[in-house]
Design goal:
This protein is mainly α and 123 residues long. It contains 2 helices and 2 strands, in the order H-E-E-H. It has a two-stranded antiparallel sheet with strand order 1-2.
Length: 123
């Protein structure tokens, strides 16, 4: 099996990150009335450019972690009296941002496939 071209791999990774972020936001909204619940988000998408330059051969190299983005607790501006830290307006804006990021990633992926097909004469 051949390796996916770097641009397609990057776009697919960005789409997976946006989908995981959307899932995290949905969990926050579902727990908007849960006493003591704290809202979470994912770290911003950071492409793994190891395919371009240096490659990590051991998990401890470069002091970075492999795998999905880490979950980050959001600082609540104003907690509800029950201690809940979810602000629905903030979650809506984060959801829109995640949706746009996913749309951009899918567009890049689709356009890259179209360019590959055109290069092969299979348009």
């Amino acid at each position: 099996m051949t390796e996916m071209p770097a641009l397609l791999d990057l776009a697919a990774s960005a789409a997976r990150h946006a989908a995981a972020r959307q899932s995290m936001i949905a969990t926050n909204v579902a727990n908007a009335d849960t006493p003591g619940y704290r809202a979470f988000d994912l770290e911003p998408f950071s492409p793994d450019l190891g395919a371009v330059g240096m490659r990590r051969t051991h998990p401890g190299h470069l002091g970075a972690e492999d795998g999905p983005a880490r979950r980050v607790a959001l600082d609540a501006v104003a907690n509800d009296p029950n201690g809940n830290g979810v602000t629905l307006e903030d979650q809506i804006l984060r959801g829109v941002d995640a949706q746009r990021a996913h749309g951009r990633a899918v567009t890049v992926y689709s356009t890259a496939l179209d360019m590959l097909r055109a290069g092969l004469g299979r348009r």
